[in-house]
Structure formats: structure tokens, C-alpha cells
Design brief:
By secondary structure, the protein is α/β, with parallel strands linked by helices. 42% of the residues lie in helices and 14% in strands. It is built from ten helices and eight strands. The longest helix has 21 residues.
Length: 290
Amino acid sequence: MNMDIQPKRTGLSFEIFPPKRTASVASIYCALADLRKLSPDFISVTYGAGGSNQGRQTLEIVNAVRNHYDMTAVAHMPCISMTRDEAARQLADFRQAGVDRVLALRGDLPADGSIPAGDFSHASDLVSFIRGLEGFENFRIYAACYPERHPDSPDWEADIRHLKLKVDAGVDGLITQLFFTNSLFYEFMDRIRSAGIDVPVEAGIMPVINSRQIERMVQLCKASLPEKFCCVMEKYRDNPEAMFQIGCAYAVDQIIDLAAHGVDGIHLYTMNNPLVAARIHESVRAVLGR
């Protein structure tokens, strides 16, 4: 028996977000230095939360990821309130910084239900715009997908139809919203592959290390929680050390199962916590062939 066969290398990437408006953007750089040691395939940077300066913060951070820390950067780009000129300027800023990868997103609609003024109604519109923009032919475009269906989709048929429209517009790869039940991801993959969507899909995994975090994220993302995990979380919610161990262990278990099923990649929602990322990386690096 040949014992030198190497396991398939599974992609591993991390998401970070700009600090709150009350904190300096410099607070993220220590986290980036630690994440760099884990050799991720890329670092994605969200658009922040509120305020007119959020796009500039994203640009500053992806610039640092690419040019100071020498890692591949993916800039989140929500388009719901953008004009075509604004989108073109932002893309030019990314390109000038050496960043040639974006995650094309619609973005959250206002809580009051109003429709923001802008030239893009859906992420697919932004994907088509980038693909038709001179000088950006080589940009790599990622898009989001939802293993438990997009919250705005009335049914699976509509959800997959809109996802295929987005992919056919020129998407290179997909990153899923967070999920906690792998069987839902496998069912989702069967659906999209049957629909002819064949781009790589990275599974979004969030280690839950405190109860407030999970309650907020599940409310925002509409992700369901397995009963077993809810029971454990409820029992240890006031024990930070136990919650850290439980959150990391649950994420590791998910990742090992996903790797065994041949997942294209893991996208770890780090919540800007490099300690969590390092703990999980140490537990799964051999499994991921890294």
C-alpha cells in the first residue's frame, strides 16, 4: 500500500470586518498579522456597518492585506445603493491597490422597507456590470449563496433560479452564508449541481464562542441551530472558557465532515478573533491537506 498519497488540499479562507466607528482601523492589523501565519488562500473584508466612511475602511484594510501582509484580499462590495459611476470608482480604487477580487453582494435593504436609489437591484446586476467594464476582465468575482435559502426567496425554485442567473452573469466562485447543519449544505449542493451551477463553493463556518454572538447572527442570517447545540449552548452560556471550547470543537467537527465529503473550501467567519482561527486551523490543517 502506498502511504505517501497526500490528501486533497481544501481551500481555507477567513473573513474579517472593519472595526466599529468608535475604534481605530489600526486595531485590525494585529489580527491580520496573526492570520497571516495560517497561510489562508485569501482574506475577505466586509463593508463594515453603517456610516459613509465604511467603503474607505474596506479599501484601507484590503490594501493592507494585499500590500503590507502579502495576502490575497477579497473586498466585499454591496451594491444596493450604488450608482454605476460609484461602482466604477470603487473598483478602480481596488485595482490601484492591487486587489483584483470582489464579493459581489446586493446588501441589506433598509429596515423601513424603502428601496435605496441606485443602479443595481441585485448582485447579478453588479456582476454583469463588472464583466462588461473595460480593464476589469481579469477580476475574480465571488458571490453569496444560502444553504437554507435566501430569506427573501419564496421557495427553492426561485432561489436556485436567481442564483443561476447570478452565476451565469460571470461569477467565479460562491461563498455560503453560515450554517450549522451539514446535511442542509449537502442538500443545497445537490440542488445547485442539478441546476447546472458548477462553480466552486466555499462553505461558510462560524465558530460560536458566546451566546450573544449566535443569537444576533441567527437572527440576521436566519440560520437554524441543531437542538443538540442549543442544549449545550444553554447549559454553558455563562461559562466563557467552556463556550470557547464548545464553539471551536463544533466548527472543527463540521469542517472534518465537510472535507470528508469533498468540499471545495472552508470560509471561516473569524469575527476578528485570530485565536479562534488558530485553534481551528491547528485541529484541521492535516484534514484539509495543508
